[in-house]
Amino acid sequence: MNELPLRDIHLPGDVSWWPLAIGWWLLPVLVVLTLFIIYNFLKYKQNNKKLAYRKMALNELSNLRIEFKDENNSIELIRSISTLLRRIALSYLPRNNIASLTGEDWLHQLNNLGSETLFTDKTRFLLEQAPYMKQCEFNHNELITTCELWIKSLPKTSNLKTGTSMPL
Predict the structure, then answer these.
(1) Which of 24, 77, 84, 95 can pair with 68 through a Cys bridge, CB separation 3.0 to 4.6 Å?
(2) Which long-range contacts (CB under 8 A, 24 or more apart) does 160-166 make?
(3) pLDDT digits (tens, 9 = 90+) for 66-108
(4) Nearest residue to 126 (alpha-carbon basis) of 148, 145, 103
(5) pTM above 0.85?
(6) In terms of pLDDT, which residue wins out, 147 or 159?
(7) In the chain, which residue ranges form alpha helices assigned H by DSSP?
(8) Considering the domain boundaries, does residue 95 fall inside one?
(9) 44 domain-assigned
(10) Torsions phi, psi of 10, nearest 5?
């Protein structure tokens, strides 16, 4: 027989760990990217939670504007706005600092919470005396706009003294 010069069976060499496959290079990038996205999402949610009271207050003020647009019940509008302002102030400061305030002290506190002096003597009369009058004529839109500006001028964090907030 004709013998051919064949070599014996040989096995391939061990698989080297270097260079790494593309999947191993992408894995750390994807992990870092995922952690970055999660961190920014949580930060965004936290900021939105801090500003949620503003949106709720502005929505309620908008509802009051719509509710009392056609009605001529000025006294009920003033009562509703006064209640809303007190609830907003209570979400910032402890109850014992806000609940008992009336008159000039109340308006002074409202102006201190906002970044501007928006509540004047005319507004003080409306918030202090008008709810107890039989009838009171005033510009509804002007009062509501003043309240909107005040809500927008409030600091971003609620309850400046204690660090906790109360829901509107």
Answers:
(1) 77
(2) 160/92, 160/93, 161/93, 161/94, 161/97, 162/94, 165/53, 165/91, 165/92, 166/90, 166/91
(3) 888 777 788 888 889 988 998 888 887 888 877 788 878 888 8
(4) 103
(5) no
(6) 147
(7) 22-67, 74-92, 95-98, 103-113, 121-128, 140-152
(8) yes
(9) no
(10) -125, 145
Instruction: Tell me how many domains the chain contains.
Output: 1
Q: Determine, yes or no, domain membership for 135.
A: yes
Dump the DSSP string for 29-43. HHHHHHHHHHHHHHH
- Phi then psi for 120, rounded to 5 degrees? -105, -170
CA dihedral angle for residue 56, residue 156, residue 166, residue 42, rounded to 10 degrees: 90
| d(C-alpha 86, C-alpha 160), whole Å | 16
Range of the domain at 146: 49-152
What does the alpha-carbon distance between residue 101 and residue 109 come to, in Å, rounded to a whole number? Answer: 8
Longest CA pairwise span in the chain (Å): 128
Q: Is residue 145 part of a domain?
A: yes
